[in-house]
Amino acid sequence: MGEYVQLRRSGAQNFQGLCPFHNEKSPSFSVHATRQFFHCFGCGVSGDVFSFVQKIENITFPEAVRLVAQKLGIPLPKVQFSSPEEAREAKMRGALLDLNESACQFFQQQLMKPEAAHAREYLKGRGLDAEAIKLFRIGFAPESGFLLRDRLKNEASEELLRESGLFSWKDRGDSPDEAAKANTAALYSKFRNRIMFPICNEQGKVIAFTGRTLATDEKSGPKYLNSPETPIYSKSRVLFNLHLAKEAIRQLGYMILVEGQMDCISVYNAGFHNVIASSGTAFTEMQAKLLGRYCKNIVVNFDPDTAGAAATERSLAMLVTEDFQIRILSLEQGFDPDLYIRRKGKEAYETALRGAQRYFDYIVERAQKQFPVRTPEGKAKAVAYLLPHIQRVPNRIVRDELATDIAQKLQVDPGVLRQELRHSGGQKTIATRPHLPLRPTVSEAERVLLRALAGGEMVTAPDESGNEVTYAAADQAHYSLTSEHLHEGLPTEALLNKLLAAWEAKQDPLEADLTEQERGLLHTVLLRDAEPLSADLLHNTLESLRIPRWERRQAELRRELAKAAGNGDNDAVRALMTELRDVDLHLRTLRGVV
Fold first, then answer.
1. Element (H, E) at 397
2. How many whole angstroms separate alpha carbon 283 and alpha carbon 360?
3. Nearest CA to 554 among 586, 522, 530?
4. Which long-range contacts (CB under 8 A, 24 or more apart) does 185-191 make?
5. Least confident piece of the model among 168-182, 207-221, 449-463
6. DSSP string of 215-260?
7. Is residue 337 a contact partner of residue 276, using CB atoms and an 8 Å limit?
8. Mean pLDDT, range 214-225, rounded to an integer
9. Among 33, 59, 158, 536, which is most exposed with the fewest C-beta within 10 angstroms?
10. 197 has which bridge partners?
11. What is the DSSP letter of 79?
12. CA 193 to chain centroid
């Protein structure tokens, strides 16, 4: 899980990090190192490594098992699906990945052909050598609309070719279903006379393409053409070059975000390997969460023109809400990262990178340029412009410090700015927190029992001869609970019974047939920092559970004693008094009363 979430050790067996499944400032996502499961104390989601990968990669369980097996370098298990529909979807995704790989190889081969000389010349003019072209698997889509179709039609069905996003077809309009009835011959390549940039997922599998046109006529279509959404490609969830950049991001502790593929490739080629791109699309919450798995420090380097500045502000708003530490790299007017590096060199870009502004310094400068802050009206407009940006900061203390800093720069009363900030915060819609599953109140005794039966811990105690003996805590808990039924009536009785059954079946307790709420509760208990489980703690816990039973027997004896005395049965009175003294003494011992 460390590939997806930055984890730090928290206790002897636990690791903690920020949950990738909901917004949070303080880490509540915990991983149990020995038992190999996760649980978030914030949103309540929990599971094992397979369910984690399944959820975060948005894939089926069998696909998650295969992906984990690949990461660990172990033989792939035989795939089993829970339904025919799940099997069909997984099969289609696998086939689409194979189809995209074949298409990528086709485009790479086409780039080497004589008719692609103008494409190679274009790439050379953009500063790309053979090594960079190979690394990023850049290719060329020929002018013909049928070469790619003819190459792939023997590898895939017509349905798959249509689902791939690589082809278009004409709707003849005879009926609403006419397009579906058209045969493979009606398909033609969506990308023609274009430089092809493959888009990969985090594992480096080709899932889509961006094509940059080499034509200059009006009929050539958009300058950059992206693959449509497919079963394996969702543009809001993917960032260009993340598969190559993620290791550098982890090592360096920050990332560079640029706007397009060529900017990303140029920055990477200049030696800054922690760069990713939004591929020219609007930056999304899913992309921000995706980046947050790797680190929370980011340098944003979008184009400085009007449109680029607006895109920067939209992206920044998303990143601020996700609690990123942001710096803005603003290059000279008319320069994007690609052109800047080609004209001024990587050393100049590195200098600019070191001088990247803090986010709020950048945003205050924009306010000062847009509004004449030397007048009261200008200051009011600047404050109104900045308030939404400040309000997005999740941490109240940071917001307050920012308000003080910005007030000084705008030469306004800090108290007035804070008052406006509170008013603005009161008017905004409060984000809905994730629904937290209800959890029953669990006593310390129940926690110890759950840990003993499911934690796999060993305890040590002296035997009758005084020798230290080590045994499984689960063995002692199972014996006492099954022979004395000490857990009957507890809120967790049903869960404890399932764990006892798992022990008897020699089954891993975490693999027992638990409800989602029971599994979440068990994960919570096992991840909770508590005193180490010892033989004394387990013994004292079992003894404490015996107290109610002895108390009930004490009350019964007193009732029987009163009845026997009323009947004049002296023999019964003597026998009951003897037992009652024994019970009183035992209870005093259990309670620690001398």
1. helix 396-410
2. 19
3. 586
4. 187/149, 187/158, 187/161, 187/162, 188/145, 188/146, 188/149, 189/141, 189/144, 189/145, 189/146, 189/147, 189/148, 189/149, 190/165, 190/166, 190/225, 190/227, 191/141, 191/148, 191/166, 191/225
5. 168-182
6. --SGGG--SEEEPPPBTTB-GGG--BTHHHHHHHHHHHS-EEEESS
7. no
8. 84
9. 536
10. 210
11. P
12. 38
DSSP 3-state percent helix, strand, coil across the chain (nearest 5): 55, 10, 35
Provide the Cα torsion 363, 364, 366, 367; round to 10°: 120
Q: List b or e across 222-253, with b for residues whose CB sees 16 or more CB atoms inside 10 angstroms.
A: eebbbbeebebbebeebbbbbbbbbebbeeee
- Reduce the secondary structure of 518-572 to three states and give it as a string: HHHHHHHHHHCCCCCCCHHHHHHHHHHHHHHHHHHHHHHHHHHHHHHHHHCCHHH
Reading the block at residue 497, the tokens are: 């019974």
Which SS3 state, helix, strand or coil, does residue 439 take?
A: coil
**Top-confidence residue, 418 or 432:** 418
Residue 151 binned pLDDT confidence (cut-offs 50, 70, 90): very high
**197 Cβ neighbours under 8 A, 6+ residues apart:** 136, 138, 209, 210, 211, 212, 240, 261, 265
Question: Tens digit of pLDDT for each residue in 203-217?
Answer: 899 999 999 999 887
Which amino acid belongs to residue 406?
A: I
Tokens of 475: 């063995």
pLDDT number for residue 196:
97
Helix axis angle, 285-292 to 306-321, nearest 10°? 60
Block residue for tokens 């077809």: 169
Which residue(s) pair with 79 in the sheet? none
pLDDT at 438: 37
